[in-house]
Amino acid sequence: MNVRRALASLVACSLLTGGPAASAGGPPIESADLRTWLTYIASDELEGRATFGAGLGLAAGYLQRQLAEWGVTPAGDGGSYLQSVSVLGVQTTSRSSVTVRVGRHTRTFKDGHGVTFPREMGGRRTLSLSRVQFAGYGLDAPGIDHNDFRGTGVAGAAVVFLGDTGPRALDAGRGRRLLAGRSRHVLDQLRGAATIGPGAGRPGPARESAVPARPAGRRSIDFTTAQRLDRPVAPAITVADEVYEFLFSAAPVRYAELKRKAAAQEPLPVFPLDDVSLTFTIDADYAVVRTQRTHNVVAIVPGRDPALRDTYVAFGAHYDHVGYADRPLGADGSGAPGRVTPGAAGDRIWNGADDDGSGTVALLALAKAFATSEPRPRRSLLFVWHAGEERGLWGSRYFADRPTVPLEQVVAQLNLDMIGRNRDDSPAQSNTVYLVGSDRISSELHDVNRAANAALPAPLTLDYELNDPSDLEQLYYRSDHYSYAAKGVPVIFFTTGLHPDYHANTDDVSRIEFDKMTRITQLVYETGARLANLDHPPVRDHRGPRAGKGTRE
To answer: Rounded to an integer, what distance in angstroms lies between the CA atom of residue 339 and that of residue 500?
Structure first.
């Protein structure tokens, strides 16, 4: 980066903070510390840190001892560093329905009879929507130059889409995550109120509730969650042909023609469904069949400014991994908790050095740096080591629903997950870190991070490819930052991308690029320090993902 550009970034940051730009560098992040800590965290003694395993408990104890040594304040339950996380296995009995009005005609479809509600549908409520938008394939995919929402805001609307395979330009195999995430994108990124998507193409089996009959005395689990069962959840239902036919019965293009076009992967029109309204009745009973417990580790470094001390910059990483093989492995690797690298079948422990041992120890380094340096930032710094990310973001979802500090006082969350390698082990990636989410909720957060990087003695290359809404891996939704973003908290996810040892038994300390990892941790420190000294929370302008594939700083 040239000097003029760096100086411009520093001036921009000075304007953002209302004072002099934060000095770059801060206390040094020591590569030797990261190596020492990771050598233990990713050791065989911790048995792969499975969510409910003894190894994760050893890791939690190690984190607590380090934090106590530096005088970092506990912020878990009862004055401890631990927040108990309850993971519930739940059985659903549903009486939910959706009533569709088209002009003067009204029909009600019960869950299991033409419509299917997710088993985890949230607390009881009624939601009526008078704006219904047909969005074609329901895709925002700039990678294939396809956007069904261009020029059409859908905030507060019910969004209807079609197509199991998407348009012809989309590789349905590689784009499966993109297709599966359409409802989530509409509800979370475009702020829609409900979605209706394709089901099996025919009505489901008739039954009294959405839970099929079970043998007497048997209680099976419909879903597993760490979230509140009574929270409001935007409806995301799938429907059969008969429901689509009624929805489009007064539309400018009837369902039969739209279905034919979707099956042939032809372009689909986009239009509002005029004089159509929907009423969702969410009514479900939840029986908790099983409760398991794990722990988040939570700590705070208090800020120095009495006016800002009760607001927080949050830093997070997940300290769990997938565990170890507790049974004989099949010739195809079956019975393993992850992938088995060819030639390494004798290694039965998935150590998770990069995933996410790297983020775990980087978070330790950040806590140490903030706790042992003066002056401390104006805001407080919140550190959360989340459990259960590998099983479904359990620890972060639990914390976001039951935070130990008021979540509305968290101005931003910086998440570190897999920051210790080069993407695909490519030497050309030695200076690259991928940023996800930085511009989606707050464009000011994006600018603060860019200025922080420009101020470093040796700036990193910031790559936004994985922030692209058409990213086939959909990484924005797959790590703990998303639990905060779903609550409206601005986030940045720092990662160096996937590599051949991802979820493999060869993700070991010997493969970590410690110098690169140290520099990324320093970038996170500098970004967090600037946010903690900002005299206002970064503005939440919800402009959505603008930096994407091909964007590098």
So the answer is: 10
CA gap 347, 324 in Å, rounded: 9
Q: Once rounded to an integer, what is the mean pLDDT over residues 187-208?
A: 69
CATH topology of domain 96-282: Glucose Oxidase; domain 1 (3.50.30)
CB neighbours of residue 550 within 10 Å: 11
Summarised one tens digit per residue, pLDDT across range 32-61 is: 999 999 999 999 999 999 999 999 999 999
User: In angstroms, what is the C-alpha Rg of the chain?
Assistant: 24
The C-alpha atoms of residue 143 and residue 465 are separated, in whole angstroms, by 10
Same fold, 3-89+290-533 and 96-282: no
> Do strands 82-94 and 284-301 pair parallel, antiparallel, or not at all (unpaired)?
antiparallel
Q: Where are the beta strands (DSSP E) in 130-235?
A: 132-134, 140-141, 146-147, 158-160, 194-198, 223-225
Contact 81/298 with Cβ under 8 angstroms? yes
User: Where in the chain are the domains?
Assistant: 3-89+290-533, 96-282
Pick the CATH number of 3-89+290-533 from 3.40.50.720, 3.40.800.20, 1.20.140.10, 3.40.630.10: 3.40.630.10
Q: If you average pLDDT over every residue of the chain, what do you get?
A: 91
* Cβ burial, residue 334 (10 Å; 0-12/13-18/19+): exposed
Q: What is the pLDDT of residue 332?
A: 79
Summarised one tens digit per residue, pLDDT across range 51-108 is 999 999 999 999 999 999 999 999 999 999 999 999 999 999 999 999 999 999 999 9
Distance (Å, whole) CA 532 – CA 418:
24
Nearest of 307, 280, 291 to residue 96 by alpha carbon: 280
Write the CA distances from 356 to 316, 317, 361, 362, integer angstroms. Answer: 11, 7, 9, 10
Cβ atoms of 339 and 503 within 8 Å: the answer is: yes
**Contacting residues for 262 by C-beta, under 8 A, at least 6 apart:** 137, 162, 163, 164, 268
Q: Is 514 helix (H, G, I), strand (E, B) or coil?
A: helix
CA 426/CA 357 separation, integer angstroms: 20
Give 293's strand partners: 86
- Which pLDDT does position 16 carry in this prediction? 40
On the question of pLDDT at 1 being above 80, the answer is no
CA-CA distance, 501 to 45, in Å (whole number)? 20
